[in-house]
Amino acid sequence: MRSSALLPAASTRSDSHLGALVALPIALLLWVLPFHAVTIAFFFGVLRTGMQATMIMASWKEAVAVVLVTIVVVRSALSRGPGVAIFSPDVAITGLIALAVLFAIVENPLFGASIPPKVELFGFRSSVFFMLLYYFGRGVPEIAERPTYIKHLFRVAVLVAAIGILERIFVSPRMLVAMGAASYMSDFLGLTVSTAGNDWGLPSNYWSVLGRHPVRRAGSVFLGGQAFALPFLLLMPAATAWVFGRSKRLKVWSLAGYAVIWAGLLVSITRTTIIVCALQVVVYFLISRRPTRVVGAALTALAIFLVALIVVPGLATFVLQTATFQTASSYSHIFDWRSGIVAFLQQPWGHGLGSSDQVAARFGRTPLTADNMFLGYAVDLGLAGLVFYLAVLFTIGYFTWRLFKNAPNAGIRMVAATVLLTTAGIALNGTSSSPFNSVFLAYNFFILAGAAISAYQRRTWLVAAAPAA
């Protein structure tokens, strides 16, 4: 059992060398990772760097993740870590990663899955690799004890949203092709199935049909409407906590940036994510016990919605078709969900890594399911995988809620609220998409989640030790 005498020392220990060591990798994941897709597209589609060279360049983010996890492992081996204990979210995440490793080893010899090693590797990467950053967060709880990370997420949100708005106004599909977007999607990622239906070879989710007329959606630096929207599951809670959680007096520039963030999300025309982000904001005000702002936010949203119905041609029809599941995407969701349920019932122990969603499509295999993260884990890793994934979401959500309620300062409350609401957003949005296809969302969410869980543990120990001090 942990000695209470060590608690103050552990909680106040400062390691300047660690701070300098992890500052650059974290900055890369915050400020460079959003530009990953557009940069790789330029190198591959414009500069013609070739498949192998571009794949090596594209793997920089995995290398950064490995470096960060290695730093924490070495720090713990040298007994310089934060001194946290094993906790239930650790068990859930470790269990899911271990299950994925086990599947990679036995799915072909025991289950006869006939999945090529390269598909297994990419399946592992898209399913659980990013969760390793949770351990980095666990080793650096200082991230959750200061609002610095949230501040940077707010600034990133403003930047990518502003780029999305400007792109929607000034950048034509032909210009996107010239920047390498079409070649990146079709030739590098191999997602030709998602680029059908337009003359430019761009992802079909660059357009939505409003009143029988195709309308361009913004993709910003993420090169796709949904790819642009998914990071907002993290960015919107962070921005809301940063703008409204610091003090009762709101700053004009922060509100202006917040408006830009919402405008950027809206021009992505990603219905589910917009609704989920709106719910995240409402829940934030509710748990912060600010009912007047709930009413204000609801009235503002209603006013904007009514004006949009009048001003935007075809929007009313679009909303009605969405509500009644009559859009093309609604039909495809139902088909994918049905396929996933059938595949799961046929083989509840799992079909193997890379059997679903974008990984299967990338390598010319027929995805057994798509557009549902729960079915994705169930189909790939079986019932055990689904249970572990649900445990990951539940445990992270529960303990960040506890941290939010008992946070001693605004900085910790911001991080706790961001992780809590992002967890809820991932769960809700995951019913009709695969949120972890957004590398920016996955990497930064699990860093924050790990740090928040360690901050909760440290806070709990300090409170327990206080009477004996």
Task: Specify the helix fraction band.
Answer: 55-70%
Instruction: Provide the low-confidence segments as ranges.
Output: 1-14
Distance between the termini: 17 Å
Reading the helices and strands in chain order gives HHHHHHHHHHHEEHHHHHHHHHHH
Estimate the mean pLDDT confidence: 87
Shape: globular
Q: In what order do the strands lie side by side in the largest sheet?
A: 1-2
* SSE-based structural type: mainly alpha
Tell me the total number of β-strands: 2
In words, what does this structure look like?
The structure is a single chain. This protein has helices at residues 7-12, 16-32, 36-46, 51-58, 60-77, 88-106, 117-127, 133-139, 148-170, 173-178, 181-188, 225-229, 232-245, 252-266, 271-287, 291-311, 315-323, 328-346, 357-362, 373-406, 410-429, 439-465, and strands at 207-210, 213-216. Helix content is 68%, strand content 2%. α6 (88-106) packs antiparallel against α20 and α13 runs antiparallel to α14. The two termini are 17 Å apart. Residues 1-14 have low confidence and may be disordered. A hairpin with a 2-residue loop joins β1 (207-210) and β2 (213-216). With 469 residues, it is mostly helical. A two-stranded antiparallel sheet has the order 1-2. It contains 22 helices and two strands.
